[in-house]
Structure formats: C-alpha cells, structure tokens
C-alpha cells in the first residue's frame, strides 16, 4: 500500500528529505563521479550543493524567525 501524500509544507519537506537521504545512502562508490545533467558537475557536487544550501537556509530562517 502506498503512503498518503504529505499535505502541508513541513510534511512535504520531511517526505522529500527522507527520499533524498534514501537516494544518497543507496549510491555506490561509482555513482558519485560521472557527469550530471548540470554541466561540469558530478553527482557529488550536486549533493554537496544541496546540503550546504539547505544548511544556509536553515541558519537564515532561524535568524529571522
């Protein structure tokens, strides 16, 4: 049975973050260096960018909230 889709922004973020974590944890050593759809970036570059961006956003939101 498929889980119900998240309805609110916090639930959607938690759902997306869990799926992102599953994908990252399932990657093998050879999955990180091939080119990605983003010119000159590897999968590792994209993951690093997303993690750093989300940390910066969280810091910004905590300062303004």
UniProtKB/TrEMBL annotation:
Classification via SUPFAM superfamilies: DinB/YfiT-like putative metalloenzymes
Residues annotated as domain Mycothiol-dependent maleylpyruvate isomerase metal-binding: 17-63
Keyword Isomerase: yes
Any Pfam family: MDMPI_N
Key words, A-Z: Isomerase
Listed GO MF terms: isomerase activity
Transmembrane intervals: none
Name of this protein: Maleylpyruvate isomerase N-terminal domain-containing protein
Organism in which the protein naturally occurs: Nocardia fusca
Lineage: Bacteria, Bacillati, Actinomycetota, Actinomycetes, Mycobacteriales
């Amino acid at each position: 049975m498929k889980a119900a889709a998240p309805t609110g922004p916090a639930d959607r973020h938690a759902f997306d973050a869990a799926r992102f974590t599953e994908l990252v944890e399932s990657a093998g050593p050879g999955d990180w260096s091939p080119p990605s759809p983003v010119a000159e970036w590897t999968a590792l570059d994209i993951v690093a960018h997303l993690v750093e961006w989300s940390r910066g956003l969280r810091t910004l939101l905590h300062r303004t909230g």
